[in-house]
Amino acid sequence: MWDSERTVRTGFRPAEHGFRFANRFLWPRAGQGRGWTLARAVLRLLGMNTTALGLCGGMCLAALDLYHLGRPVPKRDAPPSAGDALFRYLLRRQIDSYSGPRVPLRVLAWMWRRDGHLDRLTIAQFLHLRARLDAGAPTPLVLVRTRGLSDPTANHQVLALGFTWAPLERRATIFMYDPNHPLIEPTLSFIVAPGGRLIDLRQSTGEAVRGFFLGRYRPRTSGPPA
Questions:
Q1: 10, 97, 98, 166: which one has the fewest Cβ atoms less than 10 Å from its Cβ?
Q2: More confident residue, 53 or 191
Q3: CA atoms within 13 A on the CB side of 49
Q4: Cβ–Cβ contacts within 10 Å for residue 150, how many?
Q5: pLDDT tens digits along 165-177
Q6: Angle between helix 85-97 and 56-69 (nearest 10)
Q7: Other beta carbons within 10 Å of 128
Q8: In this predicted model, what pLDDT tens digit does every residue of 56-68 receive, in sequence order?
Q9: When comparing pLDDT for 101 and 188, which is higher?
């Protein structure tokens, strides 16, 4: 598994299948709708900063919905406003991306892991990721960036689209759709060192990364509005 050079790509291309706008939204203020008031309360209960929260998970799942339906992404260069049907769809898919409390609780648990333990967990997740990408399935990834009592909203969700494996260097490079960086294909790379350690784990766009785990994807047959 670790001895042969590999390059695997799915059919998802960020410039074609990703949203054109970045993950930056103007959120409704308190009191603007019963649904948002309830969502804000739940997010605060989970320890998330609702003033800084984006819709990275929702954008990833919505882009996957369109990809599997064979429909183009909306030709919008600016993020939808809070009253827009597309915004409501992205918010619903954002909540779906949490898998109930599963993903937020797992993020919090991983934030408290020591680096060595997180290395081993991430390597195990990479093996699962390889199998999914080998099967041609773009796969949600949850990137753990912070530790301890840091703000959980600084962590992030992306789509893994493919990978390369260079056995001599023992370096993996994962190709991604990152909603924070539309129309380009950032990478996540690392070296698997002896003893189950990760060396030089970094994202090409400069954000810190401590580890990652696979998210879940369940398609919606309707897809987001045009």
A1: 166
A2: 191
A3: 9
A4: 11
A5: 999 999 999 999 9
A6: 100
A7: 12
A8: 999 999 999 999 9
A9: 188
Kindly report the CA angle at 93 between 181 and 90, in degrees rounded to 5?
55
- pLDDT single digits (tens) 176-219: 999 999 999 999 999 999 988 999 999 999 999 999 999 999 99
* Four-residue CA torsion sign, 177, 179, 181, 182: positive
Q: pLDDT digit string (tens) for 79-97?
A: 998 889 999 999 999 999 9
Distances (CA, A) of 20 to 17, 95, 180, 203: 9, 21, 10, 20
Convert the chain into a string of H (helix), E (strand) and C (coil): CCCCCEEEECCCCHHHHCCCCCCCCCCCCCCCCHHHHHHHHHHHHCCCCCCCCCCHHHHHHHHHHHHHHCCCCCCCCCCCCCCCHHHHHHHHHHHHHCCCCHHHHHHHHHHCCCHHHHHHHHHHHHHHHHHHHHCCCCEEEEEECCCCCCCHHHCEEEEEEEEEEECCCCEEEEEEECCCCCCCCCEEEEEEECCCEEEEEEECCCCCCCEEEECCCCCCCCCCCC
Contacts of 172 (CB under 8 A, 6+ apart): 126, 163, 164, 165, 166, 189, 190, 191, 192
Non-local (6+) Cβ contacts of 21 within 8 A are 76, 77, 78, 79, 182
